[in-house]
Amino acid sequence: xxxxxxxxxxxxxxxxxxxxxxxxxxxxxxxxxxxxxxxxxxxxxxxxxxxxxxxxxxxxxxxxxxxxxxxxxxxxxxxxxxxxxxxxxxxxxxxxxxxxxxxxxxxxxxxxxxxxxxxxxxxxxxxxxxxxxxxxxxxxxxxxxxxxxxxxxxxxxxxxxxxxxxxxxxxxxxxxxxxxxxxxxxxxxxxxxxxxxxxxxxxxxxxxxxxxxxxxxxxxxxxxxxxxxxxxxxxxxxxxxxxxxxxxxxxxxxxxxxxxxxxxxxxxxxxxxxxxxxxxxxxxxxxxxxxxxxxxxxxxxxxxxxxxxxxxxxxxxxxxxxxxxxxxxxxxxxxxxxxxxxxxxxxxxxxxxxxxxx
Length: 358
Prior knowledge:
Elements: E1 9-16, E2 31-32, E3 57-63, E4 71-79, E5 92-100, H1 101-108, E6 137-138, E7 144-145, H2 151-154, H3 162-166, E8 187-193, H4 204-217, H5 221-225, H6 232-238, H7 245-254, E9 262-264, H8 280-283, E10 294-300, E11 323-329, E12 342-349
Antiparallel strand pairs: 1-8, 1-9, 2-3, 2-8, 3-4, 4-5, 5-12, 6-7, 9-10, 10-11, 11-12
Protein name: Programmed cell death protein 2-like
InterPro entries: PDCD2-like_regulator, PDCD2_C
Organism: Clupea harengus (Atlantic herring)
């Protein structure tokens, strides 16, 4: 469980991305679905499922530069949409890409197109890094400046608009015959601090969901949380149907914001949906490149599942999970000029109640 000192950031679905626009997002964009956006000089291919060899679908893209680091940093998560592969770690892939500001300038030199009058500016990203409290400053131009942008990336007098330059860096602009996986409808992700949520008059919906859960399980959260030392008869009466007290704690925690699709807290504590293996720390392998241990960075939440739908209404392809915990290299190792993303690790937990629907 998270400690009181940990400040988790919550990702929420914030409107559909208009696919009619040309290159509506960049690697600076936090988003669900769509196609991943590559960083300059980084060649990003769709990975394949280790279980069935099918090309994976892009699930989320998270722009998450680290404090005091000179690198732009984006993590992309992929998953297999075949039902036989649901809930299995081997059917997920996590790729981390980084680049310097100088890489952007050299890659976009001579390739940018000046924005026309009245052209809509792409939605800016949010800085997920530790202690980041600048969530965007609105200016008269309509652009949103993020904490990760420096004056050199936002000044207009000496250099072309970087947001316009970055529009040409989408993976879809790379002429590559690679096979792509299913494409989910894209949505922007907005970010809030978990501490912004409280049990007050504005949280009626969250309280209603918690009450529905308690009625369905036949006991209150307080009873479920305090049944360990009771007699066997009382335990049988108040135990949740899924038989997992960890799931009860999970539901209680997210009841403050049931709509959350992502939780971010690098080096923080993950929120397990079911009891993890006793050797979970040994299950997470060290970085395959530098050998450093991996640390928890963010996790995908159950509310995301209903948003992962492809455009074809006749297709039954989807991604099912309880929660997906993403672990990344603690030192975030990167060789300047590298053209390949670093592979990280995803620990997948299935929904404990999912077996009730099969």
